[in-house]
Specification:
The protein is of the alpha+beta class and about 350 residues long. About 35% of the residues lie in helices and about 5% in strands. Strand 2 and strand 3 form a beta hairpin.
Amino acid sequence: MATQHHSSAPHAPAVSAAYPMAKPGYGKRSAPGQQARTRDDFALLPTRERYVAGFVDHLPDGAAMSVKQLAKQLPLYGQQAISTALKALSVAGHLRRVRCAVGAGDETRWVFRTFWSRTARDNEWWTTYLATETATKTAAPTAPVEPPTPTAVPPQRTPPQPTDTESSPPARKAISTGHTKTTGDTSPSPAYLALARLGRDDHRLGLSADDCTTLEPLAAQWLDRGVTTDYLTSTLTAGLPTEVDSPVGLLRRRLTDKLPPRLPATPNTPTDTPTPTRRLLVECTDCGRPGPPEALPDGLCRPCHTAHSAGGRPSPDPTQLAAVKAHMTNLRDLLKPV
């Protein structure tokens, strides 16, 4: 007699031995104190969420947790459905996406983890746990994150020297660019490199060399105020719209509007002062906006939490709608034949 399964959720596929692992600083991390695995796990979740949760629960620590990679392994649902399921699992208390700063000084880097708990946890538990040193050490990569290898610059050919019968060419005036130093070193500045790498991290923010030179003074103001290049990058790439028509315009606006405050110089602390414990920043599971654990209940920022509670996207600001309509009307008038 065949055994009947009362659960309507499809069985999640077995985890392949070739399932890709994330790079150091990324991937799945299991939360402590979970109950033993049973057949009734995730029984209160909808069908799709049970399917995704069952698959994620069997992934090893360090496995890739990106929406794109999960959609490749779960053929029943696409990337949009997987993203919605992960958001629901975050609200149900099964996962949190976090950032953790590792290193010191100019070598500080941000690493990204997804904490997973088979046992559903409430917001108080997640807030308390993510504030502990144990969670910070768990989120940090097991191997140090090495800085990217500088690209070898091909040797420059020596220009031919003028002969006695040739007139010497006029001396070329030194062109003062934003990413060259006054000492004569032509290596790009950290601000220029941070802007140039944005397009490699996200194709929507691809910048030309002229764009990087134009935006470099604005990015340099951030670094002058004590932030790291990783903090600058994470702020510029958080919560991007689906399509970016003008990357340089969007980045100029963010560099200007989100400029961090200039902190006053602090006196030298005694050598016996303990190093403050680094806290984790929780990422909104929906839009990726970072914040402290207590500011993101259910792993969602305030706008996304409001949209989820209302069952849809938040209504747009009437002021912004009026501005957009006026702009479109102006464009139509300009396109009319004279």
